[in-house]
Amino acid sequence: MINPKNYDSRRNNSTLMLFDRYMYPQVDYAIRRRLQTHPSHIQRLELEAVLNGHEGCVNCLEWSTNGRLLASGSDDFQLCLWDPFRRKRLHAIHTKHYGNMFSVKFLPKHNDALIATAAADKSVMLFDINSSQEAIYTCHCHGARVKRLATAPDSPYVFWSAGEDGVILQLDHREKHTCRSEDNRVRLINLTTYIDTNAEAKCIALNPVKTELLAVGANDPYARIYDRRMLTPSSSAAVLAAESFDNGRPIPKDCVNYFCPGHINKNNSKVIEHEPRAITYLTFNPTGTELLVNMGAEHIYLYDLLNAEQPVFLNLPEFKLAATTCLEAEPDNCAEVTIPKCSSSNRRKLPENIDEYKKLGNELLENEQYLRAINTYSHAIGLESQWPVLYLNRATAYMRRLWFGDVYAALRDCHKALRLDCSYIKAHFRLARALLELGRPQEADECLKELIRRFPSYANNHGVLMLNKDIKENRQTTQSQQQANEAYNRLELSDDEFYWRSKAKDYSLRFVGHCNITTDIKEANYFGYNGDYIVAGSDDGNFFIWDRKTCNIHSVYKADSAIVNCVVPHPDICMMATSGIDHNIKIWSPLDGTTKPNAVTGIEHSVESNQMKMKTDPFDISTRNLLCWNG
User: Fold this and answer.
1) Which spans of this chain does UniProt mark as WD repeats (predicted)?
2) The pTM is what?
């Protein structure tokens, strides 16, 4: 019997490792992780093969459960089935779709024979690849383009669809139904009933462990997770009233949880501006404890479903004074100074390796190389997370870089620094500045006043006086702007929607660098059974790989002449399939050799260019719909 903790003598031989995986279930997890995302594999990732056969943009990819087959859907209306290991197309089904295909899904427990498709022609079809070219099940219930399909591992017959009519359908291919609105018994959720008539469902996913949980992304920044046990498919759209009724009964308020980055969530008013952001893709991790969200005109966010909390803007740690002491860092007149109980970590010397990272980060920061500085601080935090100076310095870099969400990320870092050292005056001051930059002048004022109360000697500090002046001017300007914008592009939320948004939970991790403004089908996925990496495509024709632990970019690859929409890791081994505007599918795996022709070398330039694009080309739906390659 092999000890799963001690198989070093065999783990460099892939054949033996695969043998051990099937013979000894207790080593299965360790071997899967070793084979899939070991650094030696990731470092050698390159383009292995190009699969040709489509005659249009390839908008969707899906691996079979066992990883032996790859399904694809395209603007050419073809459903193709591939053997990527032999670089061979096995089936090409010319579907009766007459709109771009956006989603393909294998139905579980059917020996990978049943594949569902969804398209811009408002239809969902199901095919048996062992029978004929004709669909064995068809649904035309959606009133607009169907963007995503979802399946559950324990559900061989029921699957779900999300459409731009704002409707989520629950379909059972054993049951025949008519697609007339007056006899529609498959409608599970209708977003238009409690958001507005322009609500669109963009993507959908089922929790792989708790399959009763259904995640929905819409044309707003809120990821919604419903408990479908509390929902009943409605017999008619007419019974869904303005206050979220389902089949004539109010939807329970606790049937759904919302998730949204704190800097985007506007939960202080029922009347809001129309939101230009949309969620283009979301997915659960293999254990069902996290939700990964790719947001258009923004970044990729990871939500920790077990520990997610509502965003905190101002919540200073308790400030208790301890006994007086003498600080070595004080001037020659070593007078007694009162030290709070929570300030010990900031007074200790950094370990040598962490101090080297800090010095390098500071040098990069001074030279305005903000991305590299942030990466350096993040790497140090990944090694040792108890040093408040690392969070403060990273917050400084964020507030100088000023990409989308950077100020809020700085605020979060200030909170972390203060939790480690409540007497950290610089962190307290920068927190007040971040609150002001986030358009929260009242809280900034409270924060600054508390700083002066805790540290009276700083009342006449030049920086404090200038910040106090800025806060007063901002409060007057904000009031004027609110009055001027009262009637501009406003949306009034229903009571239920306002309640759900006000309870929205904040993100845990953020991954930046790619660009997502041109298509609304851009994915983001976990790579590795333990989610060691995050992968996503970009509008610059590249796909990105992030180190999940540090959130830093690990590598970038050129994978399309224009846009990469799909980056789909193999379920078991170190292999990925990508597609986008080009009429082909690219397969990536570890290759021997010293050259990496598709690896992007000027990562910093690519990343900065992407952020500029997102600032100058907002995620405007009316503009996107004019693009020939629109998702």
Assistant:
1) 51-83, 557-589
2) 0.90
